[in-house]
Each structure stands twice: as C-alpha cells, then as structure tokens.
Amino acid sequence: MKIISAKVIVTCPGRNFVTLKIMTDQGVYGIGDATMNGREKAVVAYLEDHVVPCLIGMDPRRIEDIWQYLYRGAYWRRGPVTMRAIAAVDVALWDIKAKMANMPLYQLLGGRSRDGIMVYGHANGSDIAETVDAVGQYIDLGYKAIRAQTGVPGIKDAYGVGRGKLFYEPADAALPSVTGWDTRKALNYVPKLFETLRDIYGFGPHLLHDGHHRYTPQEAANLAKMLEPYQLFWLEDVTPAENQEAFKLIRQHSVTPLAVGEIFNTIWDAKDLIQNQLIDYIRCTIVSAGGVTHLRRIADLAALYQVRTGSHGATDLSPVTMGTALHFDTWVPNFGIQEYMRHTEETDAVFPHDYHFDKGELFCGETPGHGVDIDEDLAAKYPYKPAYLPVARLEDGTMWNW
Ligand code: GCO
Ligand code: MG
C-alpha cells in the first residue's frame, strides 16, 4: 500500500482551517487538521514544501515509523509548526488505518472506556450579571460543566468575553486588536463572579475558569486561594508555564485544581509539571501535540501521576481535531473533561461529521475512521482571510500576555 498524493486545503467558513488530505493507491483517504490560529500559512508551507514530497510512495500503514521520520528526521524538533504538521499526517494515517480495519478509531486504540464524553462550554458576559445569565443558559442546554469568564470594570475587552453570549471567536481582526489588562482589578472582581454563581446555581454544575497566562505566580496563588471556597473543576493557565517552578508556589497556597497545556507541543513540555504533580489536568490536544501517536504517550505519562486529560477544544481546533479527540477521549483511561466551543453552521457543513451532543456530553460515531470528512467544493467557496488573536497591554501601554 502506498501514499500517492497529499494536498493541503485552506478554508475559512467563519474562521480559517488548514486540512491535510492523504490519498492512497487503494482509494482510501485520510484527513488531518493542521490549523494554527493566526499563523495558518506557516504550517501550510511546512507541509507543502517539506512534508508532502517525502510522503509520496510511503506505506501509510507505518504510522509510527512515519511519525519518527518526521520528528527525528527533521533534525529541528518540536515547536508549534512542526508538531501541527506531524499531527496532520498522523491523524490522516490513523483515519486511513481505521477505515481499512473497518472500525471507528476508538476501537483501534483499545476500545470504549466510557459511554459519553463530558464537555464544558464557554459562558461569558461583559459583567458578572451577564455571565451569570450565560451560565444559566448553558445549564438549560444540559451542560454539566461550564467555563465562566467575565469582563472586568475598567479593563478594555478582558480575555474570554465575546460579542454574543453563546459564541465567542477571539481571532476576529485582520491585524491584532489591542485589549487591556489590570491584575488588581481582575483579582478584586473574578472571585465575586464565582461567589455569585455558587449562590445562584449551587454546587451541582462544574465551574471552570481560564487565567490565560495573565497572573504572576504570587498573584496566581492568591487567585487560586480566593477561589477555593467555590470548588472549581479547574483553574487554567493561571500563570505562564515557561518557568514551571512557579507552579510550586501556587500549590503551596491552594488546593484549587490546576490545568495547563493548550500551548504545549510535546511530552517534554508537560513532563516536569506532571512528574512533580504540579497540575491536575493536562490540556494538550491532537492537533497541537503531534497527533494521536504522541498524545497517547502524554496521557500515559499523566496517568502514572493521576493527572487527567482535558483536551483543548476551542473553535480554532477544526471538527477533524474534535472528532479525533472524541475517539481518544472515548478510549483514554485517565479522561477528565473535553472543552467544546461549538463551531458555526458553515464550519459544520464544510466538515461533515458523525459526532453529536446530548445532555452535556459529546459522543463519537461508529463510522470507520475518525468520522470527519471535508467537502472540498464547499471549502473552496470560503477563501483564506487573515485573522489574528488580539494582543494585551497594561494601562501604561506595557505589552502583556494575551
Ligand atoms: C481556551 C483557549 C482559547 C485560546 C485559543 C487560541 O481555553 O479555549 O485559551 O480561547 O485562546 O484557542 O487560539
Ligand atoms: Mg485556555
């Protein structure tokens, strides 16, 4: 069996997606996601110029060997561009293998560990009252877990607050827009949100919050401690994870569960946080961390330390990643939760898929493969549009972490 061709498809049905389609001499094809929000074309070039030519003639059944070829063979290892390109190939090859085996992907991985995949949705509002209302709407929709973000008085466009209450798309400008940040104001406001949410909705729903790398370790420890009475499911990216020693300080002061990893690309980024038991959930997902082949290694390492998975699932991860992640989540023993930001109707139409939502859970389908395809004719109707994530500045103009 041989790979005879591979093409990179760029489409923008509401937002940009980069998709790899690998064709074989037996007529079976596989689809992989290679989207990198705001840097899409870097991965397109990496795939088209440096990966696709090497794939032609290879045996698509040799998933592990092709993974190692692309990782070790590049000499330049790791990084968000390389690992997304590897992920796209890897996912397309697992799709092909599962189609050849006439099995849904989760069966190849080892079979079902659970019935449904608990997901969390994104509730946001420009102030506490609006966020409380949005959380209520998610509860009405059947969600068991909800991430709550609020605008903060005096901060211009705080992180996580969209224009509509149920949909939020951060990459929304042809050049990065400038948002504001002020830690003191946030620390004085965010705990009140969770106090109000618990007063109104009780302790039934799981609540999550994303600090989006904004706080210093001391401020992060303070926030984690202040949020303790509200028993969050997790507090995410509360401080940047380049210096992982910082998490020791947070742990010393709080038992609020911590989640990190949506910007990690390999097991090496996650290793110390996991082994030192400084986090409770690892957020790496299929597209950003080298596909099924590599994410499985990260999850297995995490399992040794009772760290559970919590895959990133924002709208910049295409339905191909979502579908594949759901097969992964259906199998992985140490599953925690799956993020689920719904895609637009246009996106769902370009990527026909067999997963579905019911009462706070997603379910992968039984179609052989990962169950997600691309309608190329429809995709061609939505050409690439430059779209960037915002940047953040402090009140005095200093650049901050977005
Ligand atoms: C999340 C994330 C996203 C990211 C986005 C970047 O927790 O879902 O933090 O909102 O900012 O995926 O591309
Ligand atoms: Mg996040």
UniProtKB/TrEMBL annotation:
Catalyzed chemical reaction(s): D-mannonate = 2-dehydro-3-deoxy-D-gluconate + H2O
Cofactor(s) the protein needs: Mg(2+)
UniProt keywords, alphabetically: Carbohydrate metabolism, Lyase, Magnesium, Metal-binding
EC number: 4.2.1.8
Listed pathway(s): Carbohydrate metabolism; pentose and glucuronate interconversion
Domain of life: Bacteria
Pfam families: MR_MLE_C (PF13378), MR_MLE_N (PF02746)
Domain Mandelate racemase/muconate lactonizing enzyme C-terminal residues, every copy: 128-257
Enzyme class: lyase
PANTHER family (UniProt xref): D-GALACTONATE DEHYDRATASE-RELATED, STARVATION-SENSING PROTEIN RSPA
Entry's family note: Belongs to the mandelate racemase/muconate lactonizing enzyme family. GalD subfamily.
Protein's job: Catalyzes the dehydration of D-mannonate. Has no detectable activity with a panel of 70 other acid sugars (in vitro).
Name of this chain's protein: mannonate dehydratase
Organism: Sphingomonas bisphenolicum
